[in-house]
């Protein structure tokens, strides 16, 4: 009785192991085929670049800020733009 259950379970485990190996091979092939110039990677790079503004340069601020408005109550509104993201999607 236990041998039958063991054999069935072992067969299932072997099948699943083969499926995992095949999926790993497909994953590696897909990773090799993916280019660094894809839209996703460009978008990701742009977002990371814009998010790492600990010490922003003048150029980075110009690239991010669309306009700055100050109303009569001296409230400041900063309108941002993300041109790299919009153009690449």
Helix content: 55-70%
pLDDT < 50 stretches? none
The general outline is elongated
Radius of gyration: 26 Å
Q: How many DSSP helices? A: 4
Cα end-to-end separation: 60 Å
H/E element sequence: HHHEEH
Total number of β-strand segments?
A: 2
Structural class: alpha+beta
Summarize the main sheet.
2 strands, antiparallel
Largest sheet, order of strands side by side?
Answer: 1-2
Mean pLDDT: 81
Percentage of β-strand residues: 5-15%
Structure description:
The chain is α+β, with helices and mostly antiparallel strands and 89 residues long. The mean pLDDT is 81. The termini are far apart. It has a two-stranded antiparallel ribbon. Helix content is 65%, strand content 12%. Strand 1 (65-70) and strand 2 (76-80) form a beta hairpin. The protein is elongated. The chain has four helices and two strands.
How would you sum up this structure in a few lines?
The chain is an alpha+beta fold and 89 residues long.
